[in-house]
Amino acid sequence: KKQAPIDLKTFHSSPIYYLIPALNRQTGKVDYFSNRDGTDIHEVMRATKAMPIAFKLSPNVDINNSTYCDSCLSSSAGKHLEKAVELGAKKVLIVDNSVKNSSNDLEDIFFNFWVYAQNRSFRRNYANAELKARDYQPPVEIELFDIRPKEPLAVSTLNNNQESLIATIQQGYDETSSNKELADFLK
């Protein structure tokens, strides 16, 4: 909001339909916010990056009379593929930046402890949504292309300093600008 302000008028009138996921702390389900629903985009961006433990022990970003945070589920490519197909997408590009390394595994362990500390209804909904996302198979007519980093990223949940962000952006640019299969898919 302060470092790189968004031109809100352009964002809200964009022909591109943005969907931004966040975990509803009351329901244990992922809710989607868009550039067309009038929600405060700055709060949505805070919520979608408010990972439990890393952000604070119990993150709560208030949006529309509910509280939200980030989660492994709201960061899941499978969950979003299902949503894209539900909304009528016929061609889907998945940008998966979830390259696992030992520090991510530790983050997953802490996050799983956090989920376990939530109420029973939350845990049940969250587990059901995780299973559904993991097992989701899109219809055969959906054209899919998946890109992911070839090497581990310089950033992580616990390390997002400016130098690491710049290195990650450069890595993404280098890997995608030379990807012939991606260029063919986007034609």
Secondary structure tally: strands: 6
Q: Mean of residue pLDDT?
A: 87
Order of helices and strands: HEEHEEHEHHEHH
Annotation field: number of helices: 7
Which percent band covers the strand fraction?
A: 5-15%
- The coarse silhouette is globular
Radius of gyration: 17 Å
Q: Span from first to last CA?
A: 34 Å
* Spatial ordering of strands, largest sheet: 2-1-4-3
Given helix and strand content, the structural type is alpha+beta
Helix content: 40-55%
Folded structure, characterized:
- The chain has 187 residues and is of the alpha+beta class.
- Helix content is 42%, strand content 15%.
- It has seven helices and six strands, in the order αββαββαβααβαα.
- It has helices at residues 8-13, 41-48, 77-86, 102-116, 120-135, 162-177, 180-186, and strands spanning 19-24, 30-34, 61-63, 66-69, 91-95, 143-147.
- The strands form two sheets. A four-stranded antiparallel beta sheet has the order 2-1-4-3, with helices on one face.
- Helix 3 crosses helix 5.
- It is globular, with a radius of gyration of 17 Å.
- The chain starts with 7 loop residues before the first helix and ends with a helix.
Topology:
Blueprint: H1 8-13, E1 19-24, E2 30-34, H2 41-48, E3 61-63, E4 66-69, H3 77-86, E5 91-95, H4 102-116, H5 120-135, E6 143-147, H6 162-177, H7 180-186
Parallel strand pairs: 5-6
Antiparallel strand pairs: 1-2, 1-4, 3-4
